[in-house]
């Protein structure tokens, strides 16, 4: 049988553990939201591909057909990130999806 002091200590320990677990869950959820936002934000460069500002990396490709192929692939990646960004839970999943698009285009 636990005495009052031991019981208080156990309850205090459990409360601290519960608080720590809640904090971890909140942090993970917030990081997940930040990642989703970042994936969406990362597609803003797509507007430069089709807009007036352009993307210097693509503009430096002198062969027009190669540049167009690179731009198409980049736009496919941007579209995928915009439409499906909530399904990704880790950056490795994003990289795998981008590699899959790249292999389909090759």
UniProtKB/TrEMBL annotation:
Stored InterPro entries: Kinase-like_dom_sf
Top-rank taxon, per record: Eukaryota
Keyword NAD in record: no
Any GO MF annotation of the entry: ATP binding
SUPFAM superfamilies, sorted: Protein kinase-like (PK-like) (SSF56112)
Swiss-Prot/TrEMBL keywords: ATP-binding, Kinase, Nucleotide-binding, Transferase
Family: Belongs to the methylthioribose kinase family.
Protein name as it appears in the record: Uncharacterized protein
Source organism phylogeny: Eukaryota, Viridiplantae, Streptophyta, Embryophyta, Tracheophyta
């Amino acid at each position: 049988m636990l005495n009052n002091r031991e019981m208080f200590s156990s309850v205090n320990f459990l409360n601290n553990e519960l608080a720590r677990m809640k904090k971890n869950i909140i942090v993970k959820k917030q990081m997940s939201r930040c990642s989703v936002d970042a994936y969406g934000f990362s597609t803003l460069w797509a507007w430069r591909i089709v807009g007036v500002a352009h993307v210097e990396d693509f503009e430096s490709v002198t062969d027009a057909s190669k540049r167009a192929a690179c731009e198409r692939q980049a736009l496919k990646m941007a579209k995928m990130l915009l439409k499906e960004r909530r399904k990704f839970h880790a950056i490795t999943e994003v990289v795998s999806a981008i590699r899959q698009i790249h292999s389909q285009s090759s």
